Amino acid sequence: MTALRARGLTVVLDGTPVVREVTWATASGRWLSLIGPNGAGKSTLLRAVAGLVPYAGTIAADGAEIRTLRSRQRARLMAYVPQEPVLPPDMTVRQYVLLGRTPHLGYLSAPGHHDRARADAAMDRLDIARFAARRLGRLSGGERQRVVLARALAADPKVVLLDEPTSMLDIGHQQQVLELVDELRRDAGLTVLSTLHDLTAAGQYADELVLLSEGRVMASGPPSAVLTADLISAVYAAQVTVVPGPDGRPVVATVRTRPALPARGAVHELRMNPAQRGFGC
Amino acid sequence: MRKLTALGIAAAFLAAAMLVGAFVGAADLNPLATAAALLDKIPFVRLPSSLGPLDKAVLFQIRLPRVVLAALVGGLLALAGAGYQGVFRNPLVDSGMLGASAGAGLGATIVIVYFGGAGPSAVPVAAFVGSLAGVGVAYVTGAAASRHTTLSDGVATLLLAGIAVGSFLTAAQTFVLQRSASDIGTVYSWLLGSLSAATWQQVISILPYAALSSAIILLHGRHLDVLAVGDEEARSLGLHPGAVRGTVVAASALAAASAVAVSGLIGFVGIVVPHVARRLAGPSYTSVLPLSLIGGAGFLVLADTVARTVLSPAELPIGVVTAIVGAPAFVWVLRATQGART
Description:
- The complex is a heterodimer of chains A (281) and B (342).
- Chain A is built from eleven helices and twelve strands.
- With 281 residues, chain A is an alpha/beta fold.
- Chain A has a single domain, classed as 3-Layer(aba) Sandwich (Rossmann fold).
- By secondary structure, chain B is mainly α.
- Chain B has a single domain, classed as ABC transporter involved in vitamin B12 uptake, BtuC.
- Chain B is globular and about 65 Å long.
- Chain B starts with a helix and ends with a helix.
- Chains A and B meet through helix 2 of A and helix 9 and helix 10 of B.
């Protein structure tokens, strides 16, 4: 179980500050999600925690500054899943999941029985052992995401960093993946740090949200405190309504700024005049 | 287990190729007697052979050093090619790229044209130094350029720098060559590759470099598999992609330079052999690397046997033989690569 916090975190890319003086903290076994418009610095912040971009300020896991960790130590502690993971098409699922054991291997050592057992356990856990011999190029979107999560889990990490884990999935698979991450978090005591585009999903699954805009924290706290119509309108320039869901957590829905045209007339117009579709939509 | 089966097939192929290479040639030797004479050399094995003293001299002083040298050169070229392919994540990269072949060509040409009297041993040394220098310049240029580029990572920049440096060195080599028309024949016969001057001395001289570079490359199979997921994810797994890349490129350059020094420029081995290895045992470099080493050795022994027999008593340059096999195979690899991406 590992608590995670950042203080005064600043990341500068190509001379431009992308993350500015950001501070947050989460207790071990919790799920913290970063939300915010495109270009707010969510992914960059996640990459800084993963040790992939240099940063100023502090990021600490259980009080230890991660900058001082050796790269293999850091990789054993935290597994990072990028938004678009590279899946070599000819590699088999089993070979790929076994790559997750890399942080546990000495420079010249090969994976042993224990490593294979951990990879197998991760595949069992994510219910992908059935197609362990299949090539990555032949997987569906939902299968790919589970395979990538299995690779992360095979490392036996304490923290998982997920960059938009549901962006390539349909609504059913989105829900499956988020439920799965939530289960893994409970079973294995993982601390989860994610970015999520979908505000309702973020509100339903995360314990805490950090709302970023232009690299700065606009709000942070439990979903009900962050997901308010006023804050979202201000940060996203969007018209939304926020209503409590069945479990009391907020549900965010967009609202049309102009009333819809009468439905039958609109359809008729589109059929009659395809050249004007751009105006109709 | 697929990997062990494939390694067994490759080892049997190499043994068969070496035996064929030993008894086929201008002076035909009896296959069984040749096999017996070879096995007799193994400690504690005593087999009577019907080969006469002259045949034995042909076998052990002419045929065998050439077969062993071909095996070494083929294994090194294929292994270096596979190593580069792992580093650059591209199955069409060859050991001759990154300025290695062009550097070797320039080195050899300078020695032949300006230091003709330096003796036959000077050309391999010049080719060896030229090959390593070519890769060194390409690597430094590529590393410097990648700091100012918008290409996704350093890999593509390095490859393009290699092509640019190679073109420059080839231009310099052409310039040196056209200054001395009388040496064109010598230079071209070197450029097209040949093992006709093979001696045990040459085998011994490249053996330490071959052993060192092969060991380093073979030990990095797992790291090359990790690099397949890209630099960023490799780093998140605790690996240092730059360090792995530098180490494997240096070892592959050393392997290719030792091969080029004694054989001249032999193309396509480094592309065709690793591709067949991938087809046999899958894409993991933990199997592609050892299979390339063994398979490349067998392939070049056979290619050299063809080179010295089809026009006998004249010899075909071995680079011509590997190109005739390799160029169509290159297209085959290209098609297979396209297929995997769509």
